[in-house]
Amino acid sequence: MTIVINLDVALARRKMKSKDLAERVGITEQNLSLIKTGKVKGVRLATLDAICRELNCQPGDILAYQPD
């Protein structure tokens, strides 16, 4: 099982910089970068909620399941 994180795509579609999103969501750029690259073991639902709110998207726009 692989979860693919498409946060870069969502940011590009909205022409928003990671720095701006991190600031609006209330997390550090470093933590947002870790999320973007999939180097985290989990994401708080509150963080996902804030990201979706700021990007005006659904969680499925950011997260995708890719079978092995």
TrEMBL record:
<dbReference type="InterPro" id="IPR010982">
    <property type="entry name" value="Lambda_DNA-bd_dom_sf"/>
</dbReference>
<dbReference type="GO" id="GO:0003677">
    <property type="term" value="F:DNA binding"/>
</dbReference>
<dbReference type="Pfam" id="PF13443">
    <property type="entry name" value="HTH_26"/>
</dbReference>
<dbReference type="InterPro" id="IPR001387">
    <property type="entry name" value="Cro/C1-type_HTH"/>
</dbReference>
<feature type="domain" description="HTH cro/C1-type">
    <location>
        <begin position="13"/>
        <end position="62"/>
    </location>
</feature>
<protein>
    <submittedName>
        <fullName>Transcriptional regulator, XRE family</fullName>
    </submittedName>
</protein>
